[in-house]
Amino acid sequence: MIIGLEFELRNVMEHIIRLARQLNKEILIESRSPFDPVCPVNTPYPWQMLGCGNYAAVFSHPDHPEYVVKIYGRDEHGLLEEKKVYDRLGKHPGFSVCYHSEQRFLILKRIEGMTLYDCVHKGVKINESVIYDIDEAVGHARDKGLFPNDVHGKNVMISNNRGIIVDVSDFSRYETCRKWKDLRKAYFTIYKKTLYHFSIKIPYFVLNGVRIGYRYYRKLKISKKQGSK
């Protein structure tokens, strides 16, 4: 029974690897600006694009909905670093799992749910337990000698009522990042006292404005800090 299951899982993985290699050959991903997400020019049928990030785009295939293929559009040397991050994290409920890596792409466990960013947009309540789940995941990453950078509303997802960090591509970069600390603070000082109690939908253009404003705010804080030295 167990041997048969292992054989079946191996066949599934071999099939998704073949599909991912073909997708990698056919896909074209553009990087118009270093400050904007990468953007696929074409998505071969029947693949579906699930989202784009700073370095890569993520796709799913209808034959294997439990997996995603993450293809790098720029900074491809970061793919190896991301694979190492997943290896160090091991199996943890606060993160996905990396099953396979090759040139330009990773095969990951698919996490289905809604990002905190989309929760605020759609008026879906974010419970405190989700924030504590991310706190625990961040602590686990630090215990493994990693640096949990770039943890923000678009990289945190609620799946089965748990908080999960879905992008660890910057966890090997030794630098200070306040994004999660600032988001956590905003949750308890603003969100919990207002939007938590009301099902209010916030338009994307407003959320995008907040995101841009936060970026300039952090740059200003860093500039002032450096100028005071």
From TrEMBL:
The organism's place on the tree of life at top rank: Bacteria
InterPro entries named in the record: Kinase-like_dom_sf, Meiotic_Drive_Suppr_Kinase
Gene3D superfamilies: Transferase(Phosphotransferase) domain 1 (1.10.510.10)
Full protein name: Serine/threonine protein kinase
Lineage: Bacteria, Bacillati, Bacillota, Bacilli, Bacillales
